[in-house]
Amino acid sequence: MTGPDSARGGLPVIDMASLFDASRVTERARVAREIEQACRDSGFFYVTGHGVSGEVLARLERESHRFFALPRVAKEAIAMSMGGVAWRGWFPLGGELTSGRPDRKEGLYLGTELGSEHPRVKAGWPLHGANLWPAEVPELRAAVLDYVAACTRAAHALMEGMALSLGLDADYFRRHYTADPTVLFRIFHYPAEPQHEEVSWGVGEHTDYGLLTLLAQDDNGGLQVKTPRGWVEVPPLPGTLVCNIGDMLDRMTGGWYRSTPHRVKNVSGKDRLSFPLFFDPDFAAEVHPLPRGAGADVDDDRARRWDGASVHAFQGTYGDYLLGKVSKVFPELVRRVWERAPTALPEETPRGPLPR
Ligand SMILES: O=C(O)CCC(=O)C(=O)O
Ligand SMILES: [Fe+2]
């Protein structure tokens, strides 16, 4: 354990090392109970034993700082509008509207690196394709790919713990949803704000969309979570990642595990970097309630949710759900990208409620 509870908003620190080794049965059962407790409480916890080395993270942080320090024109060369339907690239400060308002952050959108020969890329599936890399910081590519690989391994292992915590076989999620997961990765830069002024939200209140999010953050803090005890800070703890569950786990468990609202305000007076990796179901997977929903009846949460939309009412693939969300947070970009997209995307391409 790392310091008093109050220093981390009462969020637990869970050592997940045993989730990489199926033979450690007793320890895995204990970790599963810790995960259940955390998910029944705030849906947020810290993990250690995640296998992402300090060197890999330090390199990612260093190269990311170099990227954001580039002149605007260099970043514009890989703007999201260049990424087309693959939905990759840089967006400027204020370019994303998380809860209907421009966020005080800039960022780089990345994801699983797929070449033009991949069948889904060939078929023009949205959010599938190649990443856009800055020519001026070529080292960023390897730094990102190494981090994403390590973090994705951790996410697969955590989903085993998640399955055990719900009384399911350890490989339940891999068998049904994550053999080919949707992995989205973002690097955010929240600029230093003058400390005498009222600081706006870096990211407005929201829940994450998929299964789980693994977040690395630098030393500057600013993430806040809405727990049953009210909003609490999620301060950085060296060597940990922050894990939280998303809407799809909320939906699958009938609300037994909740995707919890959170938000970010950078009041540190310094530039803040964060690195969320979203580990989500296969884009083409239909997301259903679990066979043995761990006890709870479906609770229609529409009235309490940040966007007034219930995750339980939704029908369709994860891709449909994701595209619906993306079109809310990037309305202008969606319009422009879809206007320019090939006129006839194949009929079977998931497109969600986007303009056709
Ligand atoms: O930057 C952070 O700490 C969190 C970002 C976040 O919540 C998100 O991207 O969904
Ligand atoms: Fe989030």
Automatic annotation (TrEMBL):
GO MF annotation terms: 2-oxoglutarate oxygenase/decarboxylase (ethylene-forming) activity; metal ion binding
UniProt pathway annotation: Alkene biosynthesis; ethylene biosynthesis via 2-oxoglutarate
GO biological process: ethylene biosynthetic process
EC number: 1.13.12.19, 1.14.20.7
Enzymatic reactions: 2-oxoglutarate + O2 + 2 H(+) = ethene + 3 CO2 + H2O; L-arginine + 2-oxoglutarate + O2 = guanidine + L-glutamate 5-semialdehyde + succinate + CO2
Species classification: Bacteria, Pseudomonadati, Myxococcota, Myxococcia, Myxococcales
A Pfam family matched in the record: DIOX_N
Protein name: 2-oxoglutarate-dependent ethylene/succinate-forming enzyme
